[in-house]
Sequence to fold (115 residues):
Amino acid sequence: QVQLVESGGGLVQAGGSLRLSCVASGSIFSINAMAWFRQAPGKQRELVALIRSGGSTNYADSVKGRFTISRDNAKNRVYLQMNSLKPEDTAVYYCRVWNSDRDYWGQGTQVTVSS
Fold:
């Protein structure tokens, strides 16, 4: 089993920044991709950003140019730097990692952007 713990969420004004962090622990064999998803009230969970083991990334169109995903393989951590935040970025943000056995989800961290 792999445990994921997210941190860094909170309340911020529009235009502000937050940095989310997710650390993986437990039976980590080989983590391939790591990603951030988000789910706003009444909406489906959506992919925000993904980073592969080689470092290549993908972003949702809505966050391109504002968010940056990065990872520290030695520490089994993934980060999401969020700049120029907008009220529509308000959601619960989830970390997801693909270990060699299966994928795992974190418990989520709330991000609220006030206008």
Notes: The first strand starts at residue 2 and ends at 7. The radius of gyration is 13 Å. The chain is about 0% helix and 55% strand.
